[in-house]
Amino acid sequence: MTQGFRPQHLAIAVTLAALVLATAALSQSGQISQVTNPGVQARMSTMNRANAALSTLNDMMGGRALFDRDRAGAARKDLMAATKSIPSVFRKPHADPLSNARPLIWSNWRDFKLKAKRAQRAAWNIDTDSLSDLRQSLPRMVLACLHCHDTYRDGTR
Ligand code: HEC
């Protein structure tokens, strides 16, 4: 065993690696620039905004960017705003050939809204006081994104 090795360090490293992969999968885009339906564009841009904010935090968490409390706080606010607007941008079943939204959203609207609410709460619960607070609170945000995508978005995730 390497000096100073602790099993929990390995667990943290594995979790971080899994999160980085999950976040990469999350960010795959449905080519928003080629989408012609404005309603579909609006919901994709909400998602892309959430994704940009999440990437900022993820980079800090993974050590690819320096932890910056102000930037982290601003990203958290962006995530709160983006997740809050999910129900309103998805309410109408706008369609586009490039959309990855499953029709199940509108036959299961109540559950979809619940998943949006959970994501909103996870955004609110992101703790940006310090890097270690961020590391502890961000995974639940990522899981909330993935949890909705698993059910309501076509594609990898
Ligand atoms: C309540 C459900 C739900 C939650 C929560 C959710 N998403 Fe999405 N997301 C979707 C659906 C549905 C689509 C597909 C929209 C479409 O293609 O019309 C999507 C699409 C996306 C896209 C692709 C946008 C594009 O340009 O095609 C990204 C990136 C994305 N989400 C990131 C995130 C991130 C990051 C989070 C968490 C902060 C998140 N999503 C939370 C349902 C959700």
UniProtKB/TrEMBL annotation:
Record's keyword annotation contains Signal: yes
Signal peptide range in chain numbering: 1-27
Q: Does the keyword Repeat apply?
A: no
Task: Give UniProt keywords alphabetically.
Answer: Signal
* Gene3D superfamilies given in the database record: Cytochrome c/b562
Q: Entry's Pfam families?
A: Cytochrom_C_2
The molecule here is called Cytochrome c
